[in-house]
Amino acid sequence: MSTIGGTISVDSSSPQVGTTPWPADEDEPWIPVVRRKKQSKDPRRSRRSGAARAASSRLDGEEQQRQFETPPNPSPQLTLEQIARRHDRISTEWRAGACCAQLRSLVEKSLPSHVRLTRAVCLGIGSFEPVESVPMVARVAHVQLEAFRVMAELLEAHCGAPVQRIIQEPCFSPTDKQFCESLGFRVVDTPTAFDMIDGETLLYGIHLYIPTWAQALRKQLPGCWVGCRVDDCERYRDLQNQDIDIARIQAIDDTFDKMPFPQEKKGDFTFSDTVVYWAQR
Ligand SMILES: C[S@@+](CC[C@H](N)C(=O)[O-])C[C@H]1O[C@@H](n2cnc3c(N)ncnc32)[C@H](O)[C@@H]1O
Fold first, then answer.
1. To the nearest whole number, what is the mean pLDDT of the chain?
2. What fold, for 79-278?
3. Quick check: pTM over 0.85?
């Protein structure tokens, strides 16, 4: 299954989905979520069918990409402490697992022969309290964030200087922002991060929409790009029937080394279709 466009599908036949309040108690069991094998309808895509799509082709890239911003949760309830506790629990478990070990190994082996990275930009991580109110969806944000932090730590250790961490996500609540700041991130509003990318940047975004990538790459190529596979970009562009310039994405595919991002256990889609592109020195 592809998660291009990043849609996480929950089984709407489950009576819990969409109706179960977020469990405030950390010990409360997580709700099992069944993902559809194949998505006939991506809600974010179907919202934009027909006239909307035709209209979007007349918009410039920045306006076009704004349609792909997830709106913030209108009624977030978690406190900063609750989000931080959940993150501690999820990230501790994830750091002890095989996916994290493989990611460390990939980065450590690549560091000597690939361009130096002095800044790390994270896009589209999602909210730590998403509207869906399904813990598994929020787990994705925690795990993706932790993987980004691990990469930044390794870069920092290698270059012996602080690596600035920047994060941009339009759906962040004020508490999401506070949480990221508490971890040392600089939180910026879109499109600020797009203009902060240069040849020494790690640009990281899992399951982002192609118009978002097109904007992120509009000025300069990063030194390292953790994102989707280029052949998926092509496929997604066709699906969207949009006039999106993916020449810069193609340039990365042509010139950078390409490594599959380590996967979580079978059946987990946290890093599905994700690739590390890193320019050689
Ligand atoms: C498909 S979701 C992926 C979420 C998560 N990374 C995942 O794998 O489930 C795409 C995310 O990109 C975010 N996004 C859209 N426009 C953005 C922008 N200009 N800057 C940063 N993130 C953006 C959306 O708000 C949304 O959360």
1. 81
2. Rossmann fold (3.40.50)
3. no
